[in-house]
Specification:
Layout: H1 26-54, H2 59-79, H3 91-95, H4 103-119
């Protein structure tokens, strides 16, 4: 992951109070978000195949998906060394963005793998 803060020491955005606001590099933020999106998509596909092979049906498959996404969120936070403000502008970006985005891929590969292994 790329660090978002620009190399410049501090640029004051508000004149009187003296508080320094961090300057974010938009390219690094976009790169970090892309890597999270691709990781979640990949985990959705792999999780769907695993859920299908293990024979999960109904609600158990969806619980498995949410466990995978929660584990992925924890992994992303751990990779950022628990200081998400260095790599993302908001903590919700790493925890919630794309959480439901891979659900369709998960269901597609879940049903495909289940059909191949348990029906045919």
């Amino acid at each position: 992951m790329a660090v978002l803060e620009d190399g410049r020491a501090s640029e004051k955005r508000s004149g009187d109070d003296g508080d320094d606001l961090p300057i974010f590099n938009a390219e690094n933020l976009q790169s970090n978000m892309k890597s999270i999106y691709y990781s979640r998509s990949f985990l959705s596909i792999i999780g769907g195949v695993v859920a299908g092979i293990w024979g999960f049906t109904g609600l158990m498959g969806f619980v498995f998906y949410f466990l995978i996404m929660a584990t992925a969120s924890l992994g992303f936070v751990a990779k950022a060394k628990f200081s998400t403000h260095k790599y993302f502008d908001c903590r919700n970006r790493i925890l919630m963005d794309g959480f439901l985005g891979g659900l369709m891929s998960f269901v597609l590969f879940w049903t495909f793998a289940y059909d191949i292994v348990h029906i045919f």
